[in-house]
Design goal:
Layout: E1 2-6, E2 12-16, H1 20-29, H2 33-46, E3 53-58, H3 63-76, H4 82-96, H5 103-113, H6 119-133, E4 135-140, H7 147-154, H8 160-172, H9 188-193, E5 194-202, E6 208-215, E7 234-239, E8 247-255, H10 261-269, E9 288-292, E10 295-297, H11 304-308, E11 312-321, E12 324-333, E13 343-349, H12 351-358, H13 367-371, E14 375-381, H14 396-406, E15 408-413, E16 416-418, H15 431-436, E17 448-454, H16 475-503, H17 511-534, H18 540-566, H19 571-602, H20 612-639, E18 647-650, H21 651-661, H22 663-668, E19 672-676, E20 683-686, H23 688-712, E21 719-726, E22 729-735, H24 765-775, E23 779-782, E24 795-799
Parallel strand pairs: 3-9, 15-17, 19-21
Antiparallel strand pairs: 1-2, 3-4, 4-8, 5-6, 5-8, 6-7, 9-10, 11-12, 11-14, 12-13, 14-17, 15-16, 18-20, 21-22, 22-24, 23-24
Length: 807
């Protein structure tokens, strides 16, 4: 066997492969027993087997017992009393044979040992009997193979024929590909299970069985090249079982591991039960039959009663429509541990929403949203504390054990398992990592029983790694994981929290905000410390501005924290302090970013004259620090203890202060702010801090979505337009970002509901803004006038009470 590579204008170069490379290849690619069976069973289905695949474990003598008796025979050769030792070995062997093998097979095994009249030939006959009478047989009734096909296909590792057929199906977007396998490495699976392989196969038109014998130990010769190994298929003198029979039988001998009935039953309960999609109707599920010494071992299917007992669930599909990709998710909550009716919700995300999940700085290309292809999913969530007995299953312990056995969200391609997704040790969606960092509902992998279904033809970018240890890294794989993580870790979690807010009235948890502020503060402090050491004395004013902003921030954060502790038991005020926390977090981010930007400009310039571009950057930084300080002074009104008192102030001046406070940020993001206000003061009597908070949240959201669109569309010009009218008294806020889907017109105001990328996702801003508006007897809404180009909504209206206007 040779691999040929043609060099440019240099003739051809021939690479020779050593025989042991095949053994190394098999060990790397077939990493477990269940993977080996998986590949062999897939081959049966690719051969169009009418009866699926039958796997027979024919075990007369366990491998561990064989090794023990063989070792005892080796020791007996070195000791006196050889005749007595030989008799004892025969007796020990006879007692150790598997009774489940049946009297006939036991008798044949013992007959094979009859010629063993010395200790030396006892070992030889024991080896031969073990190899011959202990086998794993995988049989199918597929199309079978001719001698020519055995040689051209079965003996060719990396067969191209199936790959070409699958590629053709991918190109035509066939719903079901012609083959499950395409790499041509399935035959190496037999190597994992045993040292010898006998293939007996025939097509319907053949009269005799075609045969191939392989002894993998021949490949161990360190000096042998692959072409030195004599492996030749031939037509045997054994007739087919029936004239019209077609199929293939693989007989694996000299078994490598210790197989027991208990082990096979355990694999049936877990591994084989998950090998094909257990959520399918059992009648339509691919047939796999396990046999232990002739007795059938049942492979369980998914219990519908267990699924019906789930406390919550989600299901949906990712579609590719004429308008682009679309994610549809149906959520249902039946029992969250307190009284509530069954709650259902449906969310539909289209291209702009899905783009938002990837974020403005995401490395994944937008094209992957479409090239990913269609897939479907469903999962059931259980709070194990509330699981009870089910009449058709058993008592509470039995139900809990059953849920634990099926736990995990598994991945199936064309009805067959993609490993290792859904295994106990696998956390492919990062559920456990997220659960450890969250309070409230714990959505870890052990609480879910679920599946995701993909197809080789429809999802060509989702390919297995060659060793079957997960999907290969690709843009489509990145989007696939991101979408599913959003469904499980965010949409379901937010759905639960929304139900909580309706029926439990829980106060908002500030833990995440506090932790983020502390992290950002530490970053700013570290950067500021290094800036002080690097900046020249001539530019000390910049350090003063940074230091002043940092001191102001520390004071504001301390006052906000003190205020939060004062209102800890007041859910209404706690909610308002959550808004303060979010705004302080935004400022902390700006402070950290500005400090680190200064550090980037100065790092490595110690003792050097500052280039003109660095001086210009320091001037920009000085302006930013003044802007941050101004925003801190505006936000400070939200944190003092008297922040809920109404006061008379000028709305026009407030909007102008906000404009100035964000000026440097808007310049940095190339955002144009159009402020349309009367050329006279508009005096109102309201809680000023709450008005600031509403507007700050709107601006914060806009910056994210405008930045996201600008990162994807180089010619885009981000714009925010704020107008103030006095008859009626209202502020209209509009940006030219991607807008919001009409389906989400009210959802955007839910607590924790967000479509931002996960690192920026809080989902509290608009919720707090509306709560503040309600407190002011005002109304914050998303106008239902859709953009004629996109059909999406992009204008917020803050209707202030007429009585607040001071004449």
């Amino acid at each position: 066997m040779q691999f040929v590579v043609h060099g440019r204008n240099q003739g051809k170069f021939v690479f020779k492969i050593t025989a042991r490379t095949v053994l190394e290849l098999g060990a790397e690619l077939i990493s477990s027993d269940i993977i080996a069976f998986y590949e062999l069973i897939k081959n049966a289905y690719d051969a169009r087997s009418r009866t699926g695949a039958d796997v027979h474990f024919n075990i007369v003598l366990r491998r561990n017992t064989y090794l023990r008796i063989r070792k005892n025979a080796e020791l007996a050769k070195q000791q006196p009393g050889r005749a007595e030792a030989l008799a004892n070995l025969h007796q020990d062997l006879k007692r150790s044979l598997e009774t489940s093998a049946g009297p006939e097979r036991i008798a044949r095994f013992m007959e094979a040992m009859d010629p063993a009249t010395t200790l030396e030939n006892f070992i030889k006959h024991l080896d031969d009997a073990y190899r011959k009478h202990n086998t794993i047989v995988v049989a199918d009734t597929g199309t079978g193979m001719s001698v020519e096909e055995l040689s051209a296909n079965y003996l060719t590792i990396g067969t191209p024929s199936r790959k070409k057929a699958v590629d053709k199906a991918v190109e035509s977007q066939d719903e079901k590909p012609p083959f499950l396998g395409e790499k041509g490495i399935g035959r190496l699976s037999a190597m994992r299970l045993g040292e010898t392989l006998t293939v007996q196969t025939a097509r319907e038109e053949d009269e005799w069985l075609n045969r191939l014998d392989v002894d993998w130990r021949d490949f161990n010769d360190i000096d042998a090249m692959i072409e030195d190994i004599d492996v030749e298929p031939y037509v045997s003198d054994v007739a087919k079982p029936a004239p019209d029979w077609a199929g293939t039988t693989l007989r694996i001998g000299d078994i490598s591991e210790d197989w027991t009935e208990k082990r096979v039953q355990e694999m049936a309960e877990y591994d084989f039960a998950r090998l094909t999609d257990p959520f399918q109707d059992p009648k339509g599920r691919p047939r796999i039959a396990l046999h232990w010494n002739g007795a059938r071992i049942a492979i369980p299917w998914m219990s519908k009663q267990l699924l019906d007992a789930a406390h919550a669930s989600f299901r949906g599909e990712y579609l590719i429509t004429d308008n682009g990709p679309e994610l549809v998710v149906h959520l249902e909550a039946r029992n969250l541990g307190y009284p509530h009716p069954v709650e259902k919700d449906t969310s539909r995300l289209t291209l702009p929403d899905l783009q938002g999940l990837l974020g403005p700085s995401h490395s994944l290309p937008l094209s992957a949203l479409e090239s990913l292809g269609r897939f479907e999913f469903e999962a059931y969530w259980y709070n194990r504390r509330y699981l009870t007995g089910i009449d058709t299953i058993g008592n509470q312990k039995v139900v809990r054990d059953l849920q634990r056995k099926w736990s995990g969200i598994m991945l199936f391609r064309d009805g067959f398992r993609v490993f290792p997704y859904g295994d106990d040790e696998d956390d492919w969606l990062g559920l456990d990592r997220r659960a450890l960092g969250r309070s409230g509902y714990v959505l870890n992998k052990a609480q879910f029983v679920g599946r995701v279904g993909i197809s080789r033809a429809v999802n060509p970018g989702l390919l297995d790694q060659t060793n079957r240890e997960g999907l290969r890294a690709s843009p489509e794989q990145g989007v696939f994981i991101a979408v599913l993580q959003h469904v499980v870790r965010d949409m379901l979690w937010d759905f639960f929290r929304e139900i909580d807010s309706k029926y439990k009235k829980n106060p908002v948890n500030l833990g995440d905000v506090k932790a983020e502020i502390n992290t950002l503060e530490a970053r700013a402090r570290s950067a500021l410390s290094r800036v002080k050491r690097l900046v020249p004395k001539s530019e000390a004013e910049v350090v003063d501005e940074l230091n002043h902003a940092f001191v102001e921030f520390k004071e504001l954060a301390a006052r906000a924290q003190e205020r939060a502790e004062q209102v800890e038991n007041d859910s209404k005020q706690m909610l308002q302090m959550a808004g303060v926390g979010l705004m302080v977090e935004v400022i902390a981010h700006e402070l950290a970013r500005a400090s680190e930007a200064a550090l980037d400009a100065l790092d490595g310039l110690r003792g050097k004259d500052l280039p003109q571009e660095v001086k210009a950057r320091l001037e920009t930084l000085r302006a930013e620090m003044k802007s941050v300080s101004k925003r801190l002074r505006v936000l400070d009104q939200m944190s003092v203890s008297g922040r809920q008192r109404s006061e008379v102030f000028d709305l026009v001046a407030l909007l102008e202060d906000m404009r100035d406070g964000h000026a440097a940020q808007f310049v940095r993001h190339n955002i144009t702010l159009e402020l349309d206000v009367p050329n006279r003061p508009v005096r109102v009597k309201l809680v000023k801090g709450m008005v600031v908070q509403i507007l700050e949240n709107l601006v914060s959201n806009s910056i994210y979505w405008l930045q996201m669109r600008a990162s994807r569309e180089p010619s885009f010009s981000p714009t925010i337009r704020i107008s103030l009218d006095t008859n009626p008294l209202e502020i209209t806020y509009h940006d030219n970002g991607q807008g919001i889907a009409p389906d989400h017109q009210e959802k955007v105001f839910r607590p924790f509901w967000s479509l931002k990328e996960k690192s920026k996702r809080r989902g509290l801003g608009l919720f707090i803004a509306r709560e503040n508006a309600t407190y002011l007897d005002a109304k914050l809404s998303l106008a239902d006038t859709a953009d004629p180009r996109t059909g999406r909504l992009s204008t917020f209206i803050l209707e202030l009470p007429d009585g607040s206007l001071v004449k």
